[in-house]
Inverse folding.
C-alpha cells in the first residue's frame, strides 16, 4: 500500500539520515541482507524503507523529529534499547501504513506519533494506519490533531486484525473558531483496541462543532481498553464522544463519559447504533460539578444491545434507550444517582447477576429515534457522524417527553436491584428473576413471576400482581419494613404457581414486623410465610398485623403453621381492613 502517510515518512527519514550523521557521528544504514534500517556507521543508505517487508529501526539520536513527505508503508518500526531520546514521528498530508509486525519499543522511553489535520493550503490530512496483524505496541502515544477551516482532522486507523496494543491515543478538539473536524481513532474489520488508552477531548472554544472521537465499525471491538470522553470546556461547545456501529462491540472496555467543566458546556457521550453491543463493558456517565454544565450521556439506538454491561450514571449524567427499536434493551446492571430515559421501551436489568443500588430516576421520554436529529421540527434524521454534536446540542435542551411514553422495567438475573429514587416511568414493572427492592417509589403496575422477589420499604403506586413469586416487605433478612401498594394487590392461588407473601417478625413493637399496606383491594391467595428474625420467639397470645387493605376477598394458607419445636401455631384473623397473625398453642405435648 502506497498512501499519503508513507510519503511523509520517507521525507523525514531522509532528513533524519543527514541530521543523525551530523549530530551523532552516525548515519542511517540499510542492511543489504535483511532490508532493516539501523544506526551503525558502515553503510550509507540510498533509499528509505518503504515496502510491506521493510523495517525502520530507530536508535540513539539527538535529532528526534521525524515527518514523512510521501505515503509510506513498512512492516514494522523498531525502537532499540539505545533510542533513549523520545522520537516524534509526524504524518501531515500523507499516510504512514504499518502493515506487518507493528511497533516494537525496546527503548524504555515513550515514543510519539502525530497525525495532523488538513490545513487551508490543500486540505489533505495526515493518517497513521495499522493493517493485517500489526500492533501499536506499548509505551507509544498517538495524537490526532484537528483540521483547520473545515478540513478533516488527523486519523489513526486500525483494520483487518490489527490491535492498539497498550498504546495511548489522544483525539484532540478543534481549537480555532470554525473548525469542523476533530482528531479521531477508528477501528474496522476485526481489529481491536486491545489494552489501549483513549482520550477524546471536548471543545474549549465556543461554537466549535466537533470534538475528539473514537469510532468502532464492522466487527471491531474495544477489547480491554480504557476510554475517556472529556466534556466541553466552554459554553455552547461539545464533549468528546465514542460510537459503536454495525456489529462492533465494547468488549470488556471501561468508558468514562465526563461532564462539561463550565456553565453551558455540554458533556461527552457514547452511542451504540446498528447492531453494536455494549458486551461486558463498564459504561459510566458522570455528572457535572459546575451548575449549568451538561452531564455525560450513554445512548442505545437502532438494534443495538446492552449485553452484560455494567452501567453507572451519576448526577445529571444519563442513560437513554428511547431511540432503541422496540422492545428495548437488556443490560447487566444499573447503579448511581443519575437519570435513565426509557421513552416507550423496556429496560431489562440484571444479565450480569450483580447486586446494585440505583437512587436516580427512571422515567419516560428521552431523545427518541436515533441520537442524530437534524431538524427537530420536521423530525428528519441522519446517521452522518459529522453532525452528531449539532444534534447533541438539540438533545441537551430537548423536552424529554419527545422520546415517548410507556417505558417499562424488567428485573432479570440472580442479583438484587435496589431502587431508592422516585421513578416515574409508566409502563409495567416485571420481576422475572432475582430481587427487586423498592425503597423509593415506582409508578407502574408490578408483576412478580415465579423466580422473582419483590421487597422494599417504599411505594408501588400501581397494582401488584404476585404471579407465583415472593413479596417480602422490608429489606434483607433481619430488616422488617412497610411496603405500600397504591393500587390493588392480587396473589395467584394456583397450586402450581401460587404466590407467597413473606413477613419478617422481629418483635412486638412498631417497626419490628413487616407490613404490606394496600391502599386498594386485596385479592388474596397463595401462601403466607412468617419468618422469625433477630432471635425473636413470640409468646402465646401475641398478635401481629401484617396486611392492611380497603377490602379483601379470598384467603391465605400458612406455609408452616406450627413452629417453636411444635409447641405453637399461627392463627389468621381476617378483619374488614386488616389481617392479624396470632400465636396460639399447638395442642401438642
Amino acid at each position: 500500500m502506497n498512501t499519503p502517510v508513507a510519503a511523509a515518512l520517507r521525507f523525514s527519514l531522509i532528513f533524519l539520515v543527514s541530521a543523525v550523521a551530523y549530530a551523532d557521528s552516525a548515519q542511517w544504514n540499510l542492511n543489504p541482507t535483511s532490508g532493516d534500517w539501523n544506526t551503525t556507521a558502515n553503510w550509507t543508505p540510498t533509499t528509505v524503507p518503504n515496502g510491506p517487508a521493510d523495517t525502520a529501526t530507530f536508535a540513539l539520536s539527538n535529532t528526534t523529529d521525524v515527518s514523512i513527505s510521501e505515503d509510506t508503508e513498512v512492516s514494522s518500526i523498531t525502537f532499540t534499547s539505545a533510542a533513549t531520546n523520545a522520537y516524534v514521528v509526524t504524518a501531515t498530508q500523507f499516510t504512514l501504513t504499518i502493515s506487518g509486525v507493528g511497533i516494537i519499543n525496546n527503548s524504555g522511553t515513550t515514543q510519539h506519533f502525530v497525525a495532523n489535520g488538513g490545513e487551508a493550503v490543500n486540505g489533505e490530512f495526515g493518517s497513521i494506519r495499522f493493517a493485517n496483524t500489526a500492533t501499536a505496541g506499548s509505551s507509544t502515544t498517538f495524537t490526532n490533531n484537528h483540521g483547520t477551516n473545515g478540513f478533516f482532522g488527523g486519523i489513526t486507523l486500525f483494520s483487518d486484525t490489527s490491535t492498539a496494543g497498550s498504546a495511548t491515543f489522544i483525539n484532540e478538539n478543534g481549537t480555532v473558531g470554525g473548525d469542523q473536524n476533530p482528531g479521531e481513532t477508528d477501528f474496522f474489520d476485526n481489529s481491536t483496541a486491545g489494552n489501549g488508552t483513549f482520550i477524546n477531548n471536548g471543545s474549549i472554544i465556543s461554537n466549535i462543532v466537533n470534538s475528539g472521537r473514537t469510532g468502532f465499525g464492522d466487527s471491531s471491538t474495544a477489547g480491554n481498553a480504557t476510554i475517556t470522553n472529556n466534556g466541553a470546556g466552554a459554553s455552547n461547545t461539545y464533549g468528546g464522544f465514542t460510537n459503536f456501529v454495525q456489529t462492533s462491540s465494547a468488549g470488556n472496555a471501561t468508558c468514562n463519559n465526563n461532564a462539561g467543566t463550565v456553565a453551558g458546556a455540554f458533556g461527552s457521550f457514547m452511542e451504540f447504533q446498528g447492531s453494536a453491543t455494549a458486551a461486558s463493558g463498564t459504561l459510566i456517565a458522570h455528572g457535572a460539578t459546575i451548575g449549568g454544565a451538561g452531564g455525560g450521556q450513554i445512548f442505545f439506538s437502532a438494534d443495538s444491545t446492552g449485553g452484560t454491561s455494567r452501567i453507572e450514571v451519576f448526577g445529571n449524567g444519563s442513560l437513554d434507550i428511547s431511540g432503541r427499536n422496540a422492545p428495548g434493551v437488556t443490560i447487566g446492571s444499573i447503579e448511581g444517582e443519575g437519570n435513565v430515559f426509557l421513552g416507550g421501551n423496556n429496560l431489562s436489568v440484571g444479565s450480569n447477576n450483580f447486586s446494585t443500588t440505583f437512587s436516580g430516576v427512571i422515567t419516560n421520554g428521552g431523545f427518541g429515534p436515533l441520537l442524530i436529529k437534524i431538524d427537530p421540527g420536521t423530525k428528519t434524521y441522519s446517521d452522518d457522524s459529522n453532525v452528531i454534536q449539532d444534534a447533541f446540542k438539540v438533545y441537551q435542551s430537548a423536552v424529554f417527553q419527545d422520546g415517548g411514553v410507556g417505558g417499562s422495567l424488567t428485573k432479570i438475573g440472580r442479583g438484587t436491584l435496589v431502587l431508592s429514587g422516585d421513578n416515574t416511568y409508566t409502563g409495567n414493572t416485571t420481576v422475572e428473576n432475582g430481587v427487586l427492592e423498592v425503597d423509593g417509589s415506582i409508578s407502574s403496575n408490578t408483576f412478580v413471576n415465579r423466580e422473582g422477589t419483590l421487597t422494599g420499604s417504599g411505594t408501588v403506586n400501581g397494582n401488584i400482581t404476585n404471579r407465583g413469586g415472593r413479596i417480602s416487605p422490608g429489606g434483607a433478612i433481619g430488616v422488617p419494613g412497610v411496603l405500600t401498594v397504591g393500587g390493588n394487590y392480587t396473589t395467584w392461588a394456583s397450586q402450581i404457581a401460587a404466590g407467597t407473601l413473606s413477613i419478617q417478625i422481629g418483635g412486638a413493637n412498631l417497626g419490628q414486623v413487616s407490613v404490606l399496606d394496600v391502599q386498594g383491594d386485596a385479592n388474596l391467595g397463595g401462601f403466607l410465610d412468617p419468618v422469625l428474625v433477630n432471635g425473636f420467639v413470640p409468646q402465646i397470645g401475641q398478635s401481629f398485623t401484617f396486611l392492611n387493605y380497603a377490602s379483601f376477598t379470598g384467603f391465605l394458607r400458612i406455609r408452616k403453621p406450627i413452629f417453636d419445636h411444635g409447641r405453637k401455631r399461627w392463627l389468621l384473623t381476617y378483619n374488614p381492613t386488616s389481617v392479624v397473625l396470632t400465636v396460639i398453642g399447638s395442642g401438642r405435648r
